[in-house]
Amino acid sequence: MSKSSRPGFVVLTTILMLLVALISCDSKLNVSHTNEVRFTSEIGRKATADSEWQADDEVGIYMVAHDALAASAATGRANQAYTADTAFQTSGFTPATAGDTLKWDDISNPAITHFDFIAYYPYDENISDPTTVAIDINRSSSEQMTGTADFLWGHADNVQNNTSTVHLKLDHMLSRLIVNISPSTTVDADAITGGVLSAMVEGTSTQGTFNLDTGALSVTSSVEGIIMKNISHTLSQAEQDAGKRRFEAVLIPVVHSDVLLDALKLEFTLGSDTYTWAANSVATSDQGKIHFDKGKQHVYNMTLNTDAHEVALAEILIGIVDWDTGSGVNAAATKAYLLTFEGNGATGGNAPGRMYVHEGDVITLPSPGTLEWSGHSFGGWDTLPTGTGTQYAIGNSFIMPAHDVMLHAIWLQNQYTVSFNGNGSTGGSVPTSITDYVETTVTLPGHGTLEKSGHSFGGWNTELAGNGDSYAAGSSFEIPSQDVTLYAQWEKNEYTVSFHANGATGIAPTSITDYVETTVTLPGHGTLEKSGYSFGGWNTELAGNGDSYAAGSSFEIPSQNVTLYAQWEKNQYTVSFNGNGSTGGSVPTSITDYVETTVTLPGHGTLEKSGYSFGGWNTELAGNGDSYAAGSSFEIPSQDVTLYAQWEKNQYTVSFNGNGSTGGSAPTSITDYVETAVTLPDCGTLEKSGYSFGGWNTDLAGNGDSYAAGSSFEIPSQNVTLYAQWEKNQYTVSFNGNGSTGGSAPTSITDYVETAVTLPGHGTLEKSGYSFGGWNTELAGNGDSYAAGSSFEIPSQNVTLYAQWEKNEYTITFDGNGHTGGTVPEPIIVNRGDEANVQGQGSLVKTNHVFAGWSTDPFGAGDSFWDSYFIPSDDMLLYAVWIRQYTVTFDGNGHTGGTVPAPITAFEGDEITVPGQGSLLRWEEGRDEGDPSGYRPFKGWINSYDGLLYGTGESDDEFFLMPPSDVILTADWVDF
């Protein structure tokens, strides 16, 4: 079987049968057991267009004891390579090398009497488990090589020792599909012969595993399109000239099912047009015939119809026969168009896979897959990369037009929201939130309908209490890197309290203007007067039916302007003044006013009494009534009244000064007559932090006369101030071992407040594995820290200082972070304060990656180290950092001479220089030897990643940037 005709595509595999014809003898043979085993073999059914054995075809043979499994064959007797002798269906096989020779006495001595032989094609020298031999019928992305895609298998059972010749019969374990294309009235012979027609099978699995012991095939879920092999050369020249074409493919067997009906398609490409036949388009009565059987061939006879973009079948008949015969089948297919997705500037990930879709089909648009763009969010798909075409969101329905479509990812900068808070508003709604891109400048709104009773809007602030950044309505605001709330700021309004005379003469009190909710004191009637009336206060209504307020009462500013009307009452009374034994001068003028009117009492005027000081007024001569000081308010009673002058000896005052006190109030001053003995108070509520009260002194610094609390003090002939004297308190500094494992804490220190003392060391204190690191006012070390021997000021209270401990050594451990080989370095233990030396990768390796150092972050975002020294401050875990490498390989694409360039290894984004043809040559079969035109001209290299042609000699295609995947550069030759 020609290797050049094998396909690389696997659909669904059934079981290949290996029939072994053997010759056995009933009687014991008198021949040497060292004889070689001889084989003949044949292909059970005609397989592909080139199905005969070729001289270089190799089969694998297992020789095992009868009924033993192939996997248990003795070493050296498993998977021996034998080569076909001739290019005929029935041929002999000889060992590929001397070491592959099988002999009758190979397994045991004396030799076993009966053997089994297991044979298969094509030979694979790397089989490790005969029960799971890998099958892949679609090994390349080009036309299927049907010869090597096929799989043959046979089992010769119970062959007697020393049989002269073992006859092997290998059967085909896969299925064959033949498609015959004929011209039509719309696609005539000229259209087909003048173009390039190709065919593809879609919707079947291409991989599986085969059990050489049992002949069973297991299918792997791997669905790929198979490019069918063009075998039009098997047609007559007349048929080819008439526009007929023939294609074949080897498929993995598959039974009929709804899944197969929905998935199976044949796709034909002629020039720029693509046509698709779907299996489920077959008439319902014939759908049960859609399947592929082991060792069978299916023949579909079709014609292309470009008017309807369909493939029409000659007849509706599906025949299932051996591979040397076949019947046609009728079906229909519509043209498919390509729907692809493009990252449009994405910095990472892969776009969703491409789709072939029929015109009018509805596609649910996918998510971006693994695509990402740093600093952006995915915003859907657009028909134009600029985002100015038709846009679609994830999950939207997309109706396929009658042409190929590329959808481009749309990326949006991250957005954040500015929200608004009414901050105590009493009505209205906050403005609509603003959402925009970070660092975008927006204009802040006004308060809109927001309102707060008695207040005016004063702008926005980033804090509720207004302690943040302030912004006026209409000002510019830059969107920050997080959502933010702006709080309305309210300013109290000012309103006016006006006073109305309400029929009186004179001038009403001056209006009072102040902020809402402010408490003010209402005036009296001032100069207002009304004949025959006494002033009776104020009211919010002219007739006095509203709220009433007396002169001098408190009034809270309301949330609007208000007028208070004077209220007038009849009746007046007189206040007369009596000198009460005065020896000179005249009494003040009497005062007549309305009842309840508040008047200011006068002083003594010119009145005097020898040896006395004026002491105010009293309602009784002897001073036993109500007393009033000069200038004090006096309310007119409901009758005339006489106030009597009160005379007092001269007095002086003793005042008290806190002298630096930190709290409380000084005792009340003592006023008494000169030379009067009074008792001095103690400090009362006075206090000074860290001090005790020590009495009084006439001098601030304590250099005058000193007096104890409770002592007697004679009033001097002048006012005097006594100053509090303070004495320092003592407080204690205690020491705590804070988890110490041995020793005792230092002795406590007791001294006066504000005294500077020297802190001790740790003394005998110790903590296993730690060193002493000083003292701290908090157990966890979050307070104030002090070194041993440092100065410490005694505070105004007892205090405990806690020992602080530091580790003596730190451990640095290493993580291979996904390494595939080598050994992670051993942990490093470093004494505190010593340098740690972090080495390189050592023996660590990771497939297709290059070591880039160590990092505190598994993704390399932390601190990095590589052959460096540093002083650690804690235990550390360092992760290996790896950078992915990719490979560019070259495919000569059928070259017949020269050498393909060596593979190139590079990182993503590296510039790859594409070589030229070099020594590569490709000879066109059928040309005369020596004819220079027999070599196909080299066009360049086709890039498997972007599909572009490089290395043509043009300056703009001599290099490309390495993508995030391996790349195959396939030689492109000019077709003759």
TrEMBL record:
Gene3D superfamilies assigned to the protein according to its UniProt record, in alphabetical order: 2.60.40.2630, Fimbrillin-like (2.60.40.2620), Listeria-Bacteroides repeat domain (2.60.40.4270)
Taxonomy, superkingdom: Bacteria
One Pfam family per UniProt: Mfa_like_1
Primary location class: other
Compartments where found: Cell envelope
Record's GO cellular component terms: cell envelope
NCBIfam families documented for this protein: List_Bact_rpt
Protein name, entry field: Cell wall/surface repeat protein
